[in-house]
Amino acid sequence: MARDLRIEHVTIVSPERASALHDADVYVHDGRIASISRSASPRRGARSSGADAAIDGAGLYLAPGLIDSHVHLGQIPGMNEEQEARHPEIAGPARKQIPRSFPLYGFTTLIDLISTPEAMARWNAQAVVPDTYFCGGAALLDGYPMSWAPKPERYRGWPYMLVEPGTEAPAGIDPAQHTPAAVVARMKADGAICVKAFYERGFGAARNLPVPKLETIRELVRSAHAAGLPVLLHANSSEAQAFGLEAGVDILAHGLWNWNEPGPGTELTPAVKKILDGVVAGNVGWQPTIQVLYGIRDLFNSGFLSNPLLTRVLPSNLIEWYRSPEGQWFHDELLKDSGIEDAQSFDAGVALAANRVKHATGYLAAHGANVLFGTDTPSAPTYANPPGLNAWFEMKNLIDAGLKPAQIFRAATLSNAQALHLDRDVGTVEVGKRANLLLLRQDPTQTIEAYTNIVKVMLGGRVLNPEDLAAARAPSISN
Question: What is the pLDDT at residue 339?
Fold first, then answer.
C-alpha cells in the first residue's frame, strides 16, 4: 500500500523544467505529489515529520515515470491462446511477471492500443501493475488485423469494428452499431481513452486487404474529437501516412519503413520528405516503433534467447519453452509464409526497412517533430519483444536514429502524456500529479543508461525495489 513519503535532498529532472531543481524535498500524500520545496535541513536521510517514510535522495535524480504509448497486453509474447491453455505451469508465472517487467525498466504508465474492458480487468488483477489505459480497435470489417483470425470467430473479438455503407455485414452484425459514431460512443462508454484505426494492405501471404475510405476515417476523427478522444492510425507505409495526414488523425502509430517506391535506397526521397514535413507542420504524433522490425528479425537470431537480460523480465521456464519445437511455431510460420529459406535473406529485408525508418526518425527529430515513445510490445506473436526490455532496445534504436537522450526522455514522458490527454495526471514531477516516479543514479536527459540501474520505482506513491520486480537477479554483465 502507498504511504505518505518524503524524498529529501534530491535533484528533480522533469521535462517541463528548463533546468534541474537541485537539493529539493518532494512530499507525497495519498498517491500524489503534495509539495515540492527546497531542502531546509542539512541533515541527510533524517525522518521527516508528517511522512510515514523518508528516502535520502542526495546524489540521485527524481524523474517522472515513463510512458509506453503502444503496447498489446492480451497475450503472452510468443504464445497463442491454445498453447497457454496447454501449459498453465508456464503461463501462470508469465502472467504474473509481465506487468512487473515494465516498471523494472521505468515504465509506470502503459497504453494498450487494442483492448476491451474485459481484457483490462484481467490485466489489472495482478498484484503489481503499471497504470494502464486502452484504445478501442476500430478495424475495418475483414481488414487488418482482424483478417488474421478465421471467420466467423474474428467478429467476436472486434466489438468496435467498422462496417462501411454498402458493405454486407456478417450474419448477426447490425451495421448501425458499427458506424464511426456508434463505435466511438461504445468505446467512450467502455472507458477507452483513445481510438485506434488501421490502414494496412497486408504483407506476407495476406496481401490486398481492404482499407478504409477517407471519409470513414474523417468521420471517425470527428466523432472521436467530439468525445475528447485522440485517434491513432496504424500506418507504416508512405501511402498510409499520407492517408492519415489527409484524414486528420492525431498520431501515426508506427515509423515510416515502407516507402511504396521501387529500389533499395534508404536516403529520404522527395515524396517521403513531403510526408515528414506534413507530420512536422501538423504537429502529428509519430511513434517510430523501430523495434518492431528487430522483433521479427531476432526470431532468426540463434543467440537471442541466450541474452542474460531476458532472465530479468521473463520466467526461466518460458524462455526454455521458446527454445522448444512448439515454442518456435511463429518462426516456422514466418518462414513458410514468406517463402524465404534462410535468416540471411530475411535479415537483409529487415535491414532495409530499419535503415529507412531510422533516417525518417532522425529527420523528424532534427526538425522538431512530436516524436512519441512507443514500442508495440509485442508487435506480433514474437518472443523477441520482451516486456520492459523491449523498451530499452527501442531507446538504443532511437539513439542510433539520431535522437538525444533528452528527446527520448520527453517523448516517453510529457509528449506522450499530452498526446493521450493524460498530462493532468502524469508525465512530469509537479504538485498534484500522480506519484509515478523514478529515483535514478544518472540524469536521464544526459544518458539512457539511467534506466538500466534504477534505484526505486514509485507507482502512485508505492515504493518498489527493482530487484523485487525482476524474474531473476541481475546478470553480472554490462547492460
Answer: 61
- Other CB atoms within 10 Å distance of the CB of residue 128: 16
Please give the grid coordinates belonging to residue 41. Answer: 535541513
Look at residues 256, 265, 262, 257 and name the one whose alpha carbon lies nearest to residue 284. Answer: 256
**pTM, 2 dp:** 0.95
Residue-level pLDDT at 475: 59
Domains located in the chain, CATH noted:
5-64+429-469 (2.30.40.10), 66-419 (3.20.20.140)
Q: Is the pLDDT of residue 43 over 90?
A: no
* CA dist 234 → 34, 199, 201, 398, 425 (Å): 39, 6, 11, 20, 26
Residue type, 473: R
Pairwise CA distance, residues 34 & 251, whole Å: 33
**Cβ density class 208-217: b for 16+ within 10 Å, e for less:** ebbbbbeebb
Antiparallel, parallel or unpaired: β 53-56 and 21-29? unpaired
Return the C-alpha cell found at 264.
533499395
- How far apart, in Å, are the Cα atoms of 436 and each of 97, 156, 390? 20, 36, 20
